[in-house]
Amino acid sequence: MKKYLDFLIKGIYAGILIGIGGIAFLAIENKIVGSFIFSFGLLTICMYSFNLYTGKIGYILVNKISYVLELLVSLIGNFLGTFIMGSLMRLTRFENYVATATNIVNTKLNDNILSIFILAVMCGMIMYIAVNNYKKEKDVIGKYFTIFMGIMAFILCGFEHCVANMFYFSIAGVFSLKVLGYILVMILGNSIGSVIIALYDNKYRKA
Q1: Which of 25, 51, 78, 139 is the most exposed place for a label (fewest CB within 10 A)?
Q2: CA-CA distance, 73 to 8, in Å (whole number)?
Q3: Domain containing 53 — which CATH number?
Q4: Which residues, other chains included, contact 172 with Cβ-Cβ below 8 Å and sequence gap of 6+?
Q5: What b/e sequence results for 180-199 when a residue is b if at least 16 CB atoms lie within 10 Å of its CB, and e otherwise?
Q6: In contact, 73 and 11? CB cutoff 8 Å
Q7: pLDDT at residue 139 in the model
Q8: pLDDT per residue over 68-90, tens digit each?
Q9: Region for 158 from its dihedrals, namely left if φ exceeds 0, alpha if ψ lies in -120 to 50, beta otherwise
Q10: pLDDT in tens, 158-171
Q11: How many domains are there within the chain?
Q12: Which of 92, 128, 110 lies closest to 19, judged by CA?
C-alpha cells in the first residue's frame, strides 16, 4: 500500500510541476520563449524522478503487469497535481491567465476527436523520445537538449499532452463529460504514440 501511496505522491508532484510549466507558458506572450520555460516542468520531473504518466507509459512493454496499476495511480496523481495548481491560480490576481487558458480550452473542445487523437499520438512519440533520451544519454548537453527541444516541439506544433491539458482545463474551470471524453482520447493517443517509439527502441535501437 505504501508503494502505491508513493506513486500517487510522485504523480501529484509531477502534476504540480506541469502546472508550473503551464503557468509560465500562459504568462509569456512569446510562444517560443514560453515553450522553452515550460520545459522546466519536465526537466525537474526527470531530475527528481517524479511520476509523469506520459513519461512512463512507454515502459509498459518492459515491465510486469503490475506496472499498469503504477501508471493508473500516477495518472490520478497527475490530475490531482494539475487540479491543485489550476484551482489555486483561479484564486490569485492572474485573471488574464484564466482567460488565456479558456481560449486554449475552447480551441481544443471545438476540434474533432480524430484530430485530437492524432495530435496526442504525435505528442506521445515526442515525450517518450525526450524522457528516454534523458535516461540513457551520457552526454550532459544531449541529455538536457532533448528535453527542451521535445517540449518546445510539442507545444509549438500544437500537439496534445493529456496532463498539460488537465492543467488548462483546471485553471479555466471547465469540466464536463465532453472534457472527460477528450482527456481520455488524449491519454489513449499519448499512450499509443509513446509505445510506437518504444517498440522501435526496444527491438531495433542498439544500446
Answers
A1: 139
A2: 5
A3: 1.20.1080.10
A4: 86, 98, 101, 102, 104, 105
A5: eebbebbbbbbbebbbebbe
A6: yes
A7: 86
A8: 999 999 999 999 999 999 999 99
A9: left
A10: 999 999 999 999 99
A11: 1
A12: 92
**Cell numbers standing for residue 153:** 516541439
Range of the domain at 157: 2-203
Phi, psi of 74 (to 5 degrees): -65, -40
- pLDDT tens digits, 106-132: 999 999 999 999 999 999 999 999 999
| C-alpha distance from residue 36 to each of 28, 40, 149 (Å) | 10, 8, 8
Which residues contact residue 65 at a Cβ distance below 8 angstroms, ignoring those fewer than 6 apart?
A: none
How far apart CA 11 and CA 129 sit, in angstroms, is 20
Instruction: Find out whether 189 and 124 touch, Cβ atoms under 8 Å.
Output: yes
Contact between 15 and 77 (Cβ < 8 Å): yes
Contact 194, 127 (CB under 8 A): yes
The C-alpha cell that represents 100 in the structure block: 488565456
Task: Tell me the three-class secondary structure of 17-66, residue by residue.
Answer: HHHHHHHHHHHCCCHHHHHHHHHHHHHHHHHHCCCCHHHHHHHHHHCCCC
Residues 14, 4: contact at Cβ < 8 Å? no
* Spatial separation of the C-alpha atoms in residues 102 and 93, rounded to whole Å: 16
**Residue 71 in contact with residue 56, Cβ under 8 Å?**
yes
Residue type at 85 in one-letter notation = M
Residue 123's identity, in one-letter code, is C
